[in-house]
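Let's study a protein:

===
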Amino acid sequence: MKKQWFLLLAFAGFFTTTTPAVGQTTPTTIVLVRHAEKGGEPGDRDPELNDAGRRRAAALARVLGDANISTIYSTPFLRTRNTAAPLARRLGIDVTITPITPEFIEDMAATLRSEHSGETVVVVGHSNTVPQTINAMGAGPMENLADDEYDWLFVVTLAANGSVSLMELRYGQ
């Protein structure tokens, strides 16, 4: 329990707003998470979250609720939309639904770089799209997540000088 609180406090401190020095540009912060635990029957292509997933989605809203999030992206699947929903409600913003196309990864990386400079953005994806987006942002290499890994929270920081960093955290129970 102490370790979870430490990570939560360290993570909250990571998002503390400060005023940049004259001439300094605010970094862009991209928070990427895989959808929370899903229910449904084997082979169900669009399952809802199960009870554990709903608890994890609520935990995401608590962890990121004060992180100055400007935009939340989600794929169109129920499990990603329902993972993003509690955070969006807490922030009073809509979730931007982004269809998965063959160009999804490149398009998402380009959008994050060009349309969100200096902002903090959340992307809710899948076991393959989250690491692939991290790789496309230049913060990899990262392999796909295992089928039972739902608690990773990745923070990609794009600094004004062009450097890219990755912080790997865990959240929820």
